[in-house]
Amino acid sequence: MCLKQKSQALEAFKLFKTTAENQLKKIKELQDDKRGEYMSTEFIKFTDVCSIHRRHMMHNRPQQNGVPECANRTMGDNISAMLYEAQLPPSLWGEALATQIYVWNCLSTSSLNGMTPYETWFKQKPTSQSVEMSCICLHSEE
Q1: pTM (2 decimals)?
Q2: Structural domain contains residue 28
Q3: pLDDT (tens digit, 9 = 90+) per residue, 98-136?
């Protein structure tokens, strides 16, 4: 779900929470950068009702949130490259983001002992065919 406005963050989080808890287990903690979209009264009430511990980081402090900031920057660069190479308009940024996240989740990571996030979520290994199909769909849309 691509957000058009930051005010959509709570609804997106609710959707993610439902999906994640159906696939994996209960969300116990949420880390955020203490920006407005995470600090609304509604968002705070929701996390309180769901017993989700809030951990706030300082925004614009790479020492505290360097890994996610680096990942966001890398994804942005990859998305720009994808759109440029495929000669697609910036209006397909959301679709390129979904493809980038899908591919990223099909790569093994040391934090999961060499497994992929895809394997952890779906309990099966991703296939190269599914990655290729995702890229073909992005390339063929106009």
Answers
A1: 0.68
A2: yes
A3: 888 888 888 888 888 888 988 888 888 887 766 555 555
